[in-house]
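Quick question about two entries, pasted in order.
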Amino acid sequence: MTDAARPAEGNPERINFFATATAQRLLAFASLVVMLIVFSLLSPNFMQTSNMIAILQAASINGVLAIAVTLIIITGGIDLSVGTMMTFCAVVCAIVLTNLGMPLWVGVVAALATGAAAGFVSGTFVARMMIPPFIATLGMMMILRGLSLILTEARPIYFNNTPGFDQISRGSLVGQIVPSVPLPNGVLILFAVALAASFILNRTVMGRYTYALGSNEEAMRLSGVNTAAWKTAIYTLAGAIVGIAGLLIASRLNSAQPALGMGYELEAIAAVVIGGTSLSGGRGTILGSLIGALIIAVLANGLRVLSVAQEWQIVAMGMIIIAAVYADQLRRRKTG
C-alpha cells in the first residue's frame, strides 16, 4: 500500500476513510459469495466446472479493462474510450496479422503499441490541453470507433490464417500441466496484469504519483513535480493494458469485430467502483476492481443460466452501476 493510500496515524478522518474503503471491498467480496450461493441454489447447472470456466473467461476481459480504468480513476479522471480502444487494438492486430501476413509476435506488439498510443493521445488531451477527461475520452471513443469501421470497411477480420492466435485467450498452459484444471490462458493473463499493476501502484514512483494526482494535484505541481508528464504516462500505461484486453477478446472470438466495444467501458467503470475505488480520485486497489469484475461476470452468467431475458439483464446491469456510484457517494459523505 502506498503512503497516499495509507491512513495517517492520529487522523480520525483518514482512519475512518480507510475503514470505510476496506469495508466496501469486504462487502463486495461478501456480495460475490452470496451471488454464487444463490445462483447455485436456483440452478444446478451454475456450479458446473465448465460454467465456472466461462465466468472466469468473461471476467478476464472486463477485469483487464477494469485494471486500466482503475489507474485512470485513481488520478481523478475517467476514461470512456476503453471499450472502443480495445476494439481498435484488435482491429490493428488483425490488419497486421491477416492483411499484412506478419508473424504473431508482431501483431501482439502492434496491439499493445496501439493501445499505448491511444492512451498517450487521451492523456495529452487531458493533461496538456486541459480538456476535461469526460469530454476528451468521449471524443476518443467516437474517433476510435469510426477508425475501426473505416479500416475494416465495417466487416469483421478473421484470424483463420494465424495459427496459435486463438490460444492466447482460449488455450490452457495450466491444462497441459494439470489436465484436471483447464484454466484458460486469458485468466492467467488477467492475474499477471493484476499483479504487475498492483506492483506499480504500491511499489513504484509512478504508483505514488498516481495516488497523489487524485488526492491533491495542485500540491504536486507546487512541489515541482511535472504533473502533466506523469498523468500522460499513466494514461499511456492504461492504454497499453487496454491493448491486452484487445488481444484477449480478439483471440476469444478469433476475429476482430469493428462494431464491438460499446458498453464495455461502463461495465469496467462499474467494476472499479463496486470494488471500492472512489470516483473522486486518490483511493483504489486492483484487488477491489477484480472483485467487481467477478461480480459483474457472475451476475451476467447467472441471469443467463436462469434464462432471464436479455432486456432484463441490461436493466440489472444498469441498477448495479447506479448502486455502485451511490455507494461511492455515501462513502465520500462519511469521510467528509
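Here is the second entry:
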Amino acid sequence: MSPIRLTVEALDLPLKHTFTIARSSASVARTAIVRLRWNGIEALGESAPSERYNEDVASVIAGLDALELGDDPYALERLLTGLPPAQACGLDIALHDCIGRDLDLPLWRLFGLDPARTPRTSFTVGIAGTEETLDKVREVGTHPILKVKLGGGNDLETIEAIRSIYTGTIRVDANEGWSPEQAVKNLAELAKFDIEFCEQPIPAGSPEKLRWIRERSTIPIVTDEDSKDARDLPALRGCVDGINVKLVKCGGIRGALAMIHTARAMGLKIMLGCMLETQILTAAAAHLSPLVDWADLDGPFLTASDPFSGVSYVNGKIVLPDGPGLGVRQTSGSLS
C-alpha cells in the first residue's frame, strides 16, 4: 500500500451576513481544509476550530502537518488517539471519506443508517437590531425551524418581533450569555412564544446551575459549550434535557458517535450542530443525522460562497449524498 499523504490549507469563507452571537461577531469564517491521498484516492476533511476551545486554524495546520501517518487509513484508533479535538476532527473526517471511497460506499450506508430518517435542520439567525433580524427572517422564507441567537440585551423584544411574522418552530441559543437568574426570568417570559428549547443559557462549567434553571423552566434546556465530548455527559445527568454534538468539539465522527451513544444511554435528546464551515464538515455530521432528534446543520445557508457541494435540503429536511465516502465534491477550481 502507498503511504498516506496529507496537505492542509486555510480557507476564508465570506458570510452572507455578519454573524453575531453573545460573545463574538464575524463576517468571514476561517476553516482548515484537509486533503488526504492514498492508493489513488483523494479524500477530504475539514476542521473549523473555535478559540473558545483553545484551538485555531494555525494550530490545526501545524499539528496535522507534523504527523507521520503510515500506510493504513483504516487504523483509526492509532491515527487519532491523543490528538487535540480540532486536529482529530479534520483527520478523522478525511480518513472516513477515504475508507468510504475505497469501499465505494456512502458513509451513511457504511454505518448501516437509513437516509430517510434524517431530521429537518434549523436555520440560525444571529444577533442584530430588530429590523435587521426581521429582514433575515423574511429572507429565510418558509423554512420550518429557526434557531435564534440571544444574549444581546433585547431578547424578549427580538422573539416577540419574530413571532409576529413567523409561525414555524423557534429554538433559542444564548451562547452562555445569561446568569442563572436572568435565564429563569427570560425563559419564563419567552414561554408564551412557544419555544422548542433553549441552548446553553449560562456559562459552561456549572451543571448544578443548569439543573436549577431546568427545575424552574417549562422550556427544555440543551447544552453546547457544556458538552464538548462524551466524558462531559455524566455530570449533566438530571441537569438538562439534551446536548448539542459538534464534530469539531469532540474530535470528528468517532467522537460524535461516542457522544450519541452515551447520551442515548442517559436518556438525553441529541442535536447535531455545526460551526461556520463548508459542505465537507456539514456533510460529515449529516451522515450521522439519522441517529439524532434535532439538527442545526445550516452552515451551507450562512456562507456566501462554498467551494464544495454535498448535502441538499428539501423544506429543511437533510438529503444525504449517495456518492462514496462523504459524497462531497469541489465545485470551484480554487480555494483562494
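Reply: The mean pLDDT is 96. The CA atoms of residues 163 and 219 lie 16 Å apart. Hope that helps.
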